[in-house]
Design a protein that fits this description.
Largest sheet: 8 strands, mixed
Number of domains: 1
CATH topology: Spore Coat Polysaccharide Biosynthesis Protein SpsA, Chain A
Shape: globular
CATH architecture: Alpha-Beta Complex
Distance between the termini: 38 Å
Strand content: 15-25%
Number of strands: 10
CATH superfamily: Spore Coat Polysaccharide Biosynthesis Protein SpsA, Chain A
Number of helices: 11
Amino acid sequence: MTWACIVLAGGTAPEDLKNKMGTPHRALATFGGRTCLDWVLDAVLASNFHEIAVAGDEAVLAHPDPRAGHWVNAGKGAVDSARSAFEKVQADGYVVFPVDTPLVQAKDFVWFREEVERRHFGAGPFFATGVCKASLFREKFPGTPATAIKMGGEGVLTGGLYATNREGFELAENLLREFRALRKSPFKMVKRLGLGNLLAYATGRLDHARVERVASDLLGGPTWVIPGASPESCMDFDNVAEYGALKRIMG
């Protein structure tokens, strides 16, 4: 199975985060003397993807890293950016990854692809995401802000690891836009899945199998919520507190 990686490096940060970063672009925020995009590309390149595409704004595209094969203009949002990148790369499966996760390592991508391949047989659309136990994340990064989803009696974090194929993306593009907007609001996300699932979530009865079943019905193809993602692959930054936590870790 061949794999491409699409790095989403577009979008601008809120005003307070811009001021802290010294740039409006998360991709160009520096940690340990290197940009966020540099760190992510290191991990992507070391994990042997068949093709790589980076979707970024003008400031990001002004200095393209020759190590990545394709550079495309970012759209208005993550799904629009992914759509632009899909038109440039060809593979059996695609990992779509946000640029604001600079601690990700090559082994995270290798693990995720292997887990998807263990589940995917034959043709047809598929969808996958990796999740990390909230307790493991907090143990690794104590004091770091994190919003967990209750699943199977414990909290989990959705990180940056998402996978699909071309058929899956085209089938679920509009719904993916909606869920991307709800990513940081677990309650609204579960509410979108229906009253029964909202009640199950509120009472701690929303288990792993039910999440996969409901997501598969919504998206129109088999959907896997894969446990075992690393805390590093879930350590992104959307606000000043999360950015500060990464700066303390990386410098």
